[in-house]
Each structure stands twice: as structure tokens, then as C-alpha cells.
Amino acid sequence: MDPLHLRSAGTSVLLAFDSGEAEIVHWGADLGASIPDLGLLSPPIPHSSYDVPAVGGLLPQASSGWLGRPALRGHRTAADQAQSSVPGFAFSPALRVVSVEATLDGRGARIVQADADAGLSVASELVLHEGGLLEIAHELTNTGAGPYQLDELAAVVPLLGDATELLDLTGRWCRENHPQRQAVRQGTWVRSGRHGRTGHDSSLLVAAGTAGFSNRTGRVWAVHFGWSGNHEQYLDSLADGRRTLGAAELLGSGEVVLGPGESYRTPVLYAAYSGRGLDGVTDAFYRWFRARPHHVDTVSGRERPVVLNTWEAVYFDHRLEPLEELAALAADLGVERFVLDDGWFRGRRDDHAGLGDWYVDETVWPDGLTPLIDKVTALGMEFGLWVEPEMVNLDSDVARTHPEWIAGPSASSHKDGGRLPLEWRHQQVIDLVNPDAWQYVYSRLDALLTENNIAYLKWDQNRDLAEYGHAGRPSVHEQTLAFYRLLDALRAAHPGVEIESCASGGARVDLGVLQRTDRVWASDCNDALERQTIQRWTEAVLPPELVGAHIGPTHSHTTGRVHDLSFRAITALFGHFGLEWDIRQATPAERETLRRAIALYKRHRGLIHSGERVVADLGEPKLALQGVVAHDRGEGLFAAVALGTLAAEAPGRVGLPGLDPEREYRVEVLLPTPADGDWSDTFADVSRPGWLAAGATASGRFLAEVGLPLPILRPEHAILLHATTVR
Ligand code: GLA
Fold first, then answer.
1. Tally of structural domains, the chain
2. Is the CB–ligand 1 distance for residue 311 below 6 Å?
3. Tens of pLDDT, residues 570-616
4. CATH number for the domain including 158?
5. Contact (Cβ atoms closer than 8 angstroms) between residue 320 and residue 372
6. Which end of the chain has fewer CB atoms at under 10 Å, N or C?
């Protein structure tokens, strides 16, 4: 069978079938059109090894010499009567190619491999998207006579280059997506997520690269796993020198048992290769996101609206008049979407009660939400509403009426003696695998969206659950699919409504949920300093138009830090911009600065939400420079940020990456403005670089290679620069 060569945007994926199974023999730099006879790749056979070359297939398996983590694990009970209850059969499949089909004009492949004796067949879909992102998913079908218990089906890519360093992300509440780095060594490196949701610590990106790979240099092979439930991500590095990067759903005991003819589909593994550091990986993800037909429209007419979210402004203190006042102030400053957060539904005076009772609280809102919605829309803003549909407080009518709708480890409800999972923020999870519970939640949300003029849902999920269970059996797999179905059904019924994926901040940020939502809440932390890191790494994968970023109160509620408004504004600009602050408390001067920041965002959101992201490699560890450059290189917006005190007296000259070397640009400071009078708050110099007040003109090459001397930024301050072509 001829090899298949998928090519796109500087990336090649070369698939060979000579061994009898599908193998990715190259995933990396583009190979050009000419491929030699792949027989030349036949490896030597070492002593003390199998007598034939071992195959590291698309689905690595022991039957062809893979001694690492196999892609498929499971077993069946024997089909014949005598052994009908004995497990362990078909433990080691030998999947061999049945058919190969090139799809999508040569950018995709559909490969079927099967083992008739084991009664298993796997159909694999590969797509190399136009921006260079590779997508892999498998579907396993039980073609045998009896049930097959699936333990794991992983999607893997071979790590073929000289990757010696591994970078992954981890975090916790209010500190999502922090990088950690280590050497690639022999053995298996694994990250497990058992949160029942993606998890604050889940690694949005696992990147292996050549020594010292950085934002803009080195070769990098990176993967993301698009799933919102339990999962494992791993790098398997075998003694024979072969390595894979893989990910799989982490299934509970007996969670997936396939009857004859039934199938299981893996979540999608997304993989990006870059020959120019992490920025190239980011570019492949951004291009993929933005090419989706359902991607938020950032260009024509409906640009990402400026948001005001009420959470850090009023918390649970819902009263019409103050909220109307807040709305009027917000509209006056230029806000375009007003989002009413937690606290509007029955019994929800604090976080102990009410979840599940998705009816407007008549005691707080005697005339429903309509008066507020009317006010908000009359002011020219959209109205958004917070919901947490998968959750239930025991202190709620729905939990009292339907104790059997609570997910947990027991087959019977807690009213009948069953054990409940531990509470978390005083709440439990509704068992969406139960069709009645699913229908109830769907109907309530559908009614809310039908009866009220709601343009946006902030869809929250505020607890981990390690003990997801339906009718006494593990159910996080089914629960996650039921959650996806809920989103899909609501989007189909209310196509104009945008949905945000929030989970105590960023505990559900993944490409599975983002196929059916329009932005994420990156973190509950609105502290601009923390946000610098959180957003830098969230936006390594997600384009900024999908990453909610709000200007919080002067005194950060989650860290207690105080930051200048210009630093907070510059930080929020590089996302889907908004406010989360009781602006009734802001001083008139602060409000004027906010007005200018909002206008600035509106002027530049077209660029921020469509351009290519650049993150400079700087020698000064506490200095960051990142930006967005238009695809036509006509302009760029850059933020230089002092994340702490700098090691050197002065930041020195800093290059602006990504501009067209041949064109001439004019660079100006947009924030802080001298008009705000806060230059002296931001800079600590005796005299400033001459170009600062008047602007600088230089070629893109000069700006990248020589750079501009930055003023001496005080710690936790930032400066926003705009470069536009003059020639
Ligand atoms: C979560 C969210 C917050 C807020 C609260 C409301 O913590 O992440 O933004 O909506 O819930 O209870």
C-alpha cells in the first residue's frame, strides 16, 4: 500500500503501511513533494530484542513489538458458554490495516484497522488543517459476539525529532496555566486529571522541543487533548529509543463496556509542529480556531463586545436599583454587554442554597428580570446571565423533590441510604445521564432563554467530582457527553446566544467544550500581575477573542494587590475585554481613564482578535513583551510588562518581533497616556528615552533586531506600544 503524505502550512505527516499497520513515520517539517521509497527507513535489529523490526504504529500495540503504553487496552469475556463469565480474553489485539482512504483533497485520511479474532475494529480519522494543526481521533467498534470492556483507547503521535525538553502547564484556582519544564528522560511521564471536569491543573498544552526551545526559536512538537472529563496525557520514552506523546480518556472501572456492534469514540488529539518555537504552535491553533464556521465573528459587525460582569461589583447583593445604576454608568463608559452573575434564582442569597432551582427569585425580583433587562437593552447593551446548570444544592426544591437525580457512587439515592459524594462549595452534581434530570435542566434553560431577552450565558461549573456515578456505575464519560449534548441542544434552539465556559475560573478550558462555547473565563483572579502569566499561557493555545479578561477593582479581591489602572487595562486588552468592578466606587478620574481604555479597545479589537500573536524572548526574566501583529504586517500592538523588579538598572533595548523587515513603521505609546498624568507612576527614570514622547520611526528589521530603549518600568507596570506602517 502506498504511503500517504499530508502537507499543510510547513508541516508534513507521512503515513506508511508496509508493516501491515498504519504508522506515522514523520510528523514535523514539510518534506516537499518528493518522497523516496520508504524501505530505506527499515531499522536495524539490536541484540536481545524481537527478531523483526518493532513497529510504533498509529495505535502502538504489543503484538507488533511496542513495549510501551499500548494505545488500546481492554478485554472481553469468552463468547463460548463454558467460559462465559471468565474475563481477560482479547487482551492483546493485533490490529492490521483493512482500508485506507485519502480525504479532504489529500489533507486527511481515514484508516480502518481490525483484528477479526479479537472482534475489534478501529477507524482512525486524521486531518491536517490548513493552518498546520493535526487532528487525530479513533473509533473502536466491538465486532465480536460478546461484550468488550474498554480500559483505554489513546491517541498518540510519535515524537520523532530531537526533543529533549518538555513543557507542560499546571495550576490551581486563581493561578491557572503556569508552565513547568523538565528534561525528557526514559520512562513514562504522565499527567492525570480525575476532577470530573478538565481541571484547574490540566495541561492545556504539552510541548516537547529541541534544547532551549523558546517563544520564537527551536523545533516544537505540541499536543492538546480536547476533552472536558477525566483524562491522562503522557510522554512515553522507551529503552529502544522510540517515544510517543499521547492522551486518553481516563475511564473508571467498567465504565465503558461495548456490546456487539457498539462503538466508542476518543476525544480529539490536536497536534502542532513548529520550526520557530512556541509562537509557531500558537499560530497553528489560532488558524484552526478562526477557520471554524462557528468561531465568534470578530470582523464583520459583531466584534467582541465590552463586558461588565457584576460578580466582583455586587456579589449576591441583587437589588434592582443599584444594578440599574451600575448599568447606566457602564453604558455611559461604552460597555456593550451587561452580565448578571450568581444570585438571581430562587433561594440563592448566598452559596449554600438554590442551585438547580432555575426560576427567577420572586422575593428579589418581584417583576422578574424584565425590568433590568429592559433597562440594559434600552441603554444599548446586551444582557447576559450566569447559570450553573450541572449543579444542585441539597437545599433546593429540585434536590428535595428528586434526590435520585444527584450523581454519586451509590446505586440508590441518599434518601434511600445511598452515600453522597463529599460536598464542595456546598453543592452536588446533577446526574445528566438520567434522561429526566437532563430534560429538566434543558427545559429550564430553554424557558429562561425563551422568556427573557438574553444574549449571553456565563455557564459555570464550580466543583470537582471524583465520584461521578449513575445508578451505581462510573459515569464521568457519559456525564461529559450529556453536558455536551445539553450545550448542543441549547445552541440549536437559541443560535444567537453566546455561551462562556467558566469553571471557578479556568477549570474547563479545552477544545472539547470550545467546540460548543464562545469564550472561557480564564481565571477568577482579576489581579493584572497574575493575569499576565495566566493569559500568556492560556493564549498559547486559545486566541484572545476567546479569553475573558476583565479590569478588576483597584484593590484585587483575590490577592489584595493594588495596581494602576493603566496596567490593569493593558492586561485586559489582550483578551475579550471587560470590567468586573463596582464602577460606582471608581473616582471620576478613574472613570475617564476607563472611558479611554474602552475606546482604545474598540479601536484595536479588530487587530487583537485577528492578528498573529508574538511573544519575545528576552534575557530579563521579569520583563515580558508580547503583542499581536496583523497578518498583512500593517500594524502591531505590543505590551512591555515589568512582572517584578528588573535585575538590571534599565530594561535596555527591546526588539518588537513579527513586523515586516522591509517596511517602515511608526511606534507610539498608547497607554499610559501622558494625559492620564501617570507616566511618573509607571516609569522610574530620571530622564526618559527621547522617542517616547514623540514616537519612533524605523524599519521592521531595525525594530526587531536593534529594538527600542524602553523607559525604566516600575515593577508591576506596563506600557502599550502601537506600530503602524508609514511606508
Ligand atoms: C465562580 C465563577 C465566578 C463567579 C462565581 C459565582 O467562582 O468563576 O466568576 O461567577 O462562581 O458564584
1. 2
2. yes
3. 999 999 999 999 999 999 999 999 999 999 999 999 999 999 999 99
4. 2.70.98.60
5. yes
6. C
